[in-house]
Amino acid sequence: MVNETNETIEANEAREAAADLTEAIVRHEWNQFQDTNNEGGRASCQGNWPVFHQMRLSQFLTWPADLQRSYAEDLDEADRVGRNLITEKYGRMMASTAPEQYRETIEPYIPRLSEVRVARQEAIIAQQVAWAADFRSRYPRLGEAMRVLTTAEDTPQATSFETYLRGELGTYSERTLGLYEAMIAAKRAAGTNLTEETILNTVRLGGFSGLDEAEAQLA
Prior knowledge:
mainly alpha, globular, DUF4125 family protein, DUF4125
């Protein structure tokens, strides 16, 4: 009985520690987001903590603990050396949405990625775009609420899921990217869909019991 009680306490403490880490990552990103300069002035989304919290928490809740810890260390290291990973992420997206500006004012000032690194990222992106397309085919109304899917659909005003992911992966350390690759491989082997897991977290945080209820609500 004592052993069972101790195990329960330890399990609860582990869950609380995991929840604290996830919240800390979201808050750290938010703080960097506040220091991101937007052309034309501060973006409205920079003042919308509830939506930012819901979207980012939904993603990080799908990550294993070692990946979360590694990314948290990336954010800490970025602060230490004067980088802003959120600024870099949005800057990298502009390679598609504003290529001339990207080449002139962003590319010279951010870390250059090797061909090997780019190829690793593109393999991840191909899998995640396939998962997102599969999800959208099964939950079309929820899919309509997502970003457009592919880089070919980018405009100066709209950034696709693919381009956003490419920008984000480009900010990860080698250690974090390796752990992210391992997560993608594990989910693929298990037959699970990362987009579905993420959107399920999103709708639950929004008060729905699951995807079917949220899809029906959008009818």
